[in-house]
């Protein structure tokens, strides 16, 4: 039996990630290493790298003004980062697509990899890594990230609560 190695994307092939919309993202550290800090009594105690991640996430809105990015609930955890982020309507994404039409949308054409969700995540990860390198701090991200396209206000509220409660629900290894 021959093994096949595939570098498949985890992104939804039927969705254009430059579209305006709200996304739930999870980004992990390499090997789930606890670079960002530790949980004590249900609260995150950030390490120096955790503070850098927090600061760089807060810079995202300023750096992505043209995309009309809006930051919602987020949390820096010991070994991962969760966030709700909205990409607003802008010159880069045209008309907002109705999320109830998602199943019928086909966006398989190659598009620029700037001004979309991947570019936001890539910029954030790069900024954290660059600052750590300048300070001589060893740090690495997992190569990919996970995203969910938020479809409605009920889902948004559930995810928002999940993020908010994440430090209290965190299970140590």
Automatic annotation (TrEMBL):
GO biological process, any: DNA transposition
Domain Transposase IS200-like: 18-166
Domain of life: Bacteria
GO MF annotation list: sequence-specific DNA binding; transposase activity
InterPro entries registered for this protein in UniProt: RAYT_transposase, Transposase_17, Transposase_17_sf
Protein name from the UniProt record: Transposase IS200-like domain-containing protein
Organism: Fluviicola taffensis (strain DSM 16823 / NCIMB 13979 / RW262)
């Amino acid at each position: 039996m021959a093994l096949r190695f595939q570098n498949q994307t985890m992104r939804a092939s039927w969705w254009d990630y430059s579209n305006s919309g709200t996304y739930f993202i999870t980004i992990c550290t390499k090997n789930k290493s606890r670079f960002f800090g530790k949980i004590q009594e249900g609260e995150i105690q950030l390490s120096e790298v955790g503070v850098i991640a927090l600061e760089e996430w807060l810079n995202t809105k300023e750096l992505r003004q043209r995309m009309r990015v809006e930051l919602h609930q987020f949390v820096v955890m010991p070994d991962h980062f969760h966030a709700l982020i909205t990409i607003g309507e802008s010159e880069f994404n045209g008309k907002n697509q109705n999320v109830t039409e998602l199943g019928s949308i086909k966006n398989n054409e190659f598009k620029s990899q700037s001004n979309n969700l991947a570019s936001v995540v890539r910029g954030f990860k790069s900024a954290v890594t660059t600052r750590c390198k300048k300070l001589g701090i060893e740090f690495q991200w997992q190569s990919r990230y996970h995203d969910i396209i938020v479809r409605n206000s009920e889902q948004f509220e559930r995810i928002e609560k999940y993020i908010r409660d994440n430090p209290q629900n965190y299970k140590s290894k």
